[in-house]
Every structure is written in structure tokens, then in C-alpha cells.
Amino acid sequence: MKARLLAIAVAVLVFVPTALSATHAGGHAKKASAGTTIVVYASGDVNVQGLWQNNIIPGFEKANKGIYVKFIFSEHGTDDGTTLARIGAAVKGRHWPGIDLVDGGLVTTLAAAGLNQPVGKATAPNLKKINPDLLVPVKGAAIPYRGSSVVLAYNSDKVKSPPKSLSALLDWIRANPGKFTYNSPNSGGSGYSFAETVVDSLLTPSILKQMDQGYNPAIQSNWKQGLDLLHGLNKYMYGNGVYPNGNAAVLQLLGQGQIWVAPVWSDQSLTALKTGQLGPNIKLTQISNPSFTGGAAYLAVPKTAKHKKVLYKFVNYILSPPAQQMIVDVMAGFPAIDIKYMGAAIKQKFQDVSANTLRPTYQTKMGNDFKAAWQQSVP
Amino acid sequence: MVLPPVAVVAVFIGFPVGAAIAYTLGKIGGPNSTVALLAQRQHVAHHGVTLGAYREVLGNTHVRGDLWATIWVTLVTVACVVLLSWSIALYLRLSNTWISRVVSALSVIPLFIPVVIASYAILTFYAATGFIKTLAYHVGWQSFPTLGYTLTAVVIGEIWVNVPFGVLMMSSGLNSVPNALIEAARDSGASLPRTVRSVLLPMNVIPTVIVATFTGIYVLGSFTVPYLTGPTAPNLMGVSMQQFFGSFNQPQQAEVMAMIVFVLAAGIGTIYVWANVRATKRASSTT
After folding, report:
1. Residue A178: which region, alpha, beta or left (left: phi > 0; alpha: psi -120 to 50)?
2. Which residues of B touch A245 (CB under 8 A)?
3. Beta strands A334-335 and A143-155: pairing type?
4. Distance of CA B136 to the CA centre of its chain
5. Do B121 and B193 form a contact (C-beta atoms < 8 A)?
6. Considering only CB atoms, which chain A residues are within 8 Å of B62?
7. Contact yes or no for A102/A299 (Cβ under 8 A)
8. Averaged pLDDT score across all residues of chain B
9. If you average pLDDT over each of A47-51, A287-291, B265-269, which comes out highest?
């Protein structure tokens, strides 16, 4: 009796999901035969999956009858390597890679290798609404569609008035030894942003612009002063100079109350607040002069993508205010288009968190050297 | 008959190793052209070879710091693992109570816990707000050091990960010593320590060498434990290699560091081979 029950349970567990997914796939197949289908590949965490699958794609398909979007998702980018090779081989051989639009970490690599359709050839009017500075680091070959910024998280039980500017933050760190740290820049973007922001505050605007836009090892000597300042902060850091590895490790220290203030990613910390990894006593704010840097997530159109006209219709939709609103609502991200095109609620929401544009980071190769320089001279 | 396995080894191990060695010496053509296209700060040899990458890496004081940290963490870990697994295995060999059975079960549990989980657990356990520090505080030892994010935590983690294998090896080695030999020694009046020293120790040399060498090689190249529980600098070579390879986009320098670790591991491997050869010789001379 027991064995039979077990067998039935197993059968139910195995067959029901299969049957459900079969009907799901069947639905897609039917749709595909009816009109134009474009294929989207995205990688990242489940919040990225939710954004595409439950929000952007249904919204677009509803507004554009006869156009269907097939969605391929790779969790944590585990398939990015093979996808990169696949697109690379297809574009070189001038045939369709099976993917029309890419969202993920591999996009900047595709852009640098010249495998993407230049944004200048795109027929999407909403592209005019994005900040053109964001196109420079990707050689104008990838489309920024959302952003996330680094913000300052603080424990409101212990810190009643958080620092408002970088110099106030540095004073706070010196006045409260052991209650601040950031992750090592090579292990995550939030610590990287803090280190770069401190160094940037001592650079001239023209040098900083050169560092954001191109690779020039000759001007790296300008980092020395800022790195010395960071080195001088060692004794005020958590554990006399402990820089944990990874963005998540800093959130953990903050959640446990071991540190009171830290730079964190806006979207990651908002998610952590939602799931309870960070308690309600943790609050977020942004500093000024300079603000922390942010990063944009880019979309790529491989040179040999199919149905480009329809594809850019989709891109145009992604960059429209309603779709950008979804990015804000679903994943606590930043809109990629200028904030002036967004509703009043959004303008207000980002008023105390950030300026209306993301402050760009160093060009990729420059950033790699910066991480190496930090590792050599700070800890 | 031996050709297929040899071919597999040659293609999947020999060829990449050869290409990597060529790359560290500045050869960026052929199989290295893709990695060389994307890498930063390379030393390129247009004619012959260049030792520039080796000179740069070995001249870097931080890398040298990492190298020394790696060597002493490896030595301390190997010593502790050998000592711990010997004592546990000896206890299991000589005692057959329910306590010894519980100990034997507990000592292999780390084998079934993923290293990532174990590392985070160790970090939490020894953190400033962790169990150990809290306990020390309550018994009045308020200056107890915070071990999280130190090389001590790395040593603790490495021991934790390696002890189960040590216990398994040592126990099987000690179990293969016939009871008759132990009883004969005891009957002729040898004390227990004397029996251990003169009977069990000499008959368990090979498992001991295996545990020491394998632990040493494992720790030399380990990544997860030092990455999650170790300090920012100096840390183990596995962590710096990953930083140079991934974060700094300097694969050539990372491969040079891999060569250094490889030479150290090959040195340890030599000890293992030497011990095996010696044991085989002995076995053939006694039969």
C-alpha cells in the first residue's frame, strides 16, 4: 500500500510539471507560427528573469499583436561563455546566431569585440532619451536599458544623521573606528565604487573624463594620492583593515550589526531589505561631491540578428517610460532614460537616492588596472 | 592498449599545459592568440622567449607575501591534519566503544558538507559576534581575538576540510595491521606507547605520506576557503591567481603564479613517489 502511494506521488511529481511545461511550450510554438518571433537571451539573477518574463515581454506582446518574443534565460550567467562563442562564430560566419537581443554581462565583451550592430544604425526613437555618455564605454555598440547605483547603507539605530557628502563620510569613518568597511574592489562593484569615488574626488575633471572613456596607462599615476588616502583609512576599517570578498559579505556584516555604514548596490540592498536579510533599521542614502558611481546594464543586437525592424520596435518599447517604470517597480533599478521623461512619483523617489544620471565608472581596462593598483597599495 | 588513455592525457592535459608554459614565456601566437587578444599588461616575445612575466610577478612584493602565506599555511595545515587524523585513527583502532564509533562518524561528516557552506559557517562561528568570541567574553576573556578574515581562520578551514580524508586513510592503514602483531608486542611486555612507536607507526608510513602530500597539494591550490575566510592581503596563491586572471585581466601573470604553485606541488609529489618506490622495494625484498 505504502509502495503504491509512493509510486503515485512520484508519478504526480514527475508528470504534472512536465505536462504543464509541455502546454507552456506548445503555447509558444503556436504563437511562433502566427507572426514574427524575436529571440531574447538574458542572464542574471531571478530578478532579471522576472523583469523580462512577467513584465516587459507580456507588456510588449499585448501592445503589438502578431509579434512574439521567445525568452531564453541563463541563471547567474552560467551559459554566457557558450553563448558568447556561439554569437562570435555566427557573426564571423555571417549567419543568424539564433539570438536577436542579448542582456547580460557578455554584452560589453561583444561590443568590445565589434560583434554588435552599432547603436547609430538603430531605428528606435526612444534612444534619444538616454544619456549619450553611457554609450562611450561600449564604443556605441550596446544599448543601456537600466541602471543600478551604489548607495550608502546605514544602521539607523546607531547613526542618527548619516553623512551627506564624501568628505563627511570620511570624517565619520575616522570618528567611528571599526564601524565601516567596503568589499575589496576586485570582488564586487559596491566596494569598487567607494574606492573609485574617493580617488575620483582628488582628480581633475579632464583626467577623470579620460579615465572614463579610454585606456591610457600613462595617466594612472594620478591615482597615487587617492590610494594613499585609502591606505591611511586601514586602521579605521572593520577589524583594522578587513575588506571582505563580495558585495554580499558586506551586507552580511551590516545585517549582523558588526558595521554601521557601508557602500552597497541599490538594487541588491533593496532586495535584501525585502527578504529580511537586512533589518528595517537599515536605511539607504546617497552622498554628494562626488556621488557614488553607478553602472548601466546593456542590451546587444548581434550584427546578424533577424527581423531588425521589429527588433528595434521592441527595443523602443523597452526604453519607453512605461517599460522603464517596470524596471523601477520590479527590481528597484534605475531608469536608463533621462528622469525628466518619467512620472512625478519617480522623480521624487530618486530625489534623495541619486542624481538624475548615473555617474560613470572607469573604462573596463582602466578599471581592471585600478583594482590591481588598489590590491597593491591599500591593504 | 595504452594508447587511448595516453592520447586523452596528451590532448586534454599536456597540450593546454604546454600552451600555458609558452604563454608565460611571451609566446602569444597559435592557441594563445584568443587569450592574448583580450589580456592586459602582457610581456610579449617576438623572437625567442622572455622571462619578463616571471620577473614582474616574482618582483612584486605583494605576490611574494602571498607566496610565503601560502607556504606557511600549507605547512601548518599539513602538520595539524597529520597529527589530528593520526590521533583519531589510533583511538578508533585501539578502542571499540560507542564513543569511538560516534567519533569516527563525526570525523568524516565534513566530507559531506560543501566547502562553501563550511567556509561561511566558520566565518560566522569565529566572527566578532560569533559563538567562540561570545563564549570567551562570558567566561571573562574579553580580549579574545577575532579570527574571521585572518590566516588562522584559513588554517582552521583547511584542517576542517582535510581531516575526514586523513582519518579515512589512516584508519584503513591502521586496520590493516594484524591484531596478532599488536598482541604479540603486548605479550612480550611492550607498553602501549612502545607498541604504537615500534609496530603501528612503521606499518602506517605510506598512508601518512599520502595524507601529508595530498593535503599539502590541496591546500597549495585551494581557493574557496581562503577566498571566503581569509584576509584581504596577504592571502593564498589560489585567491591571488583568481584576482589576476579575472579581476585584473592579467592572465599571463596568473599563469606565471600557477607555474610557481605547480613547481611547489611537483616538489611535494616527488616525496610521495619516493615513499612509494621505497615501500615497493621493501615489500619485494621481504617476500
Report:
1. left
2. 227-228
3. antiparallel
4. 30
5. no
6. 375-376
7. yes
8. 91
9. B265-269
Question: Between B40, B62, B228, which is nearest A365 by CB?
Answer: B40
- The four Cα atoms A165, A166, A169, A173 give a dihedral, to 10 degrees, of -170
Which residue on chain B is closest to A188 by alpha carbon?
B247
Chain centre distance of CA B235: 15
Phi then psi for residue B273, to 5 deg, are -65, -45
What one-letter code names the amino acid at A221?
Answer: S
Q: Which of B227, B247, B249, B257 best probes binding to A when mutated, by most A CB atoms within 10 angstroms? A: B247
DSSP label of B244: I
A54-70 pLDDT, tens per residue? 999 999 999 998 999 99
CB contact under 8 A, A376 and B62: yes
Size of interface A-B (CB pairs under 8 A): 55
d(CA A314, CA A276) in angstroms, rounded, equals 35
A281 is written with which cell numbers?
Answer: 533599521
Per CB-CB distance under 8 Å, the chain B contacts of A185 are: 247
> Which pLDDT band holds residue A7 (cuts at 50, 70, 90)?
low
CB B66 within 8 A of CB B240: yes
Say yes or no: A372 contacts chain B, CB-CB below 8 A: yes
Contact B127 A256 (CB under 8 A): yes
Nearest CA to A278 out of A153, A149, A151, A147 is that of: A153
Cα distance from B157 to chain A (closest Cα, Å)?
16
Best mutation target among A80, A243, A245 (most B Cβ atoms within 10 Å) is A245
C-alpha distance from A188 to closest chain B C-alpha (Å): 9
Specify which residues A103 forms β-bridges with.
A42, A299
* A96, A305 Cβ separation under 8 angstroms: yes
Which of A290, A292, A294 shows the shortest CA–CA distance to A205?
Answer: A290
The answer to whether residues A270 and A285 touch, using CB atoms and an 8 Å cutoff, is no
- Say yes or no for a CB contact (<8 Å) between A242 and B244: no
CA distance A309 to chain B (A): 32
Three-state DSSP state, A78:
coil
Which residues of chain A neighbour B247 with C-beta distances below 8 Å?
A: 185-187, 368, 371-372
Q: B198-225: string of b/e by CB count within 10 Å (b at 16+)? A: ebbeeebebbbbbbbbbbbbbbbbbebb
DSSP secondary structure letters along A325-351: HHHHHHH--EESB-GGGS-HHHHHHHH
Reduced to 3 states, what is the DSSP secondary structure of residue B163?
A: helix
pLDDT in tens, B85-112: 999 999 999 888 999 989 888 999 999 9
Q: Which residues of A touch B128 (CB under 8 A)?
A: 239, 258
B246:A186 CB<8 A: yes
Enter the pTM of the model. 0.76
Residue A3 is predicted with a pLDDT of: 54
ipTM: 0.81
Assess contact for B214 and B208: CB atoms under 8 A: no
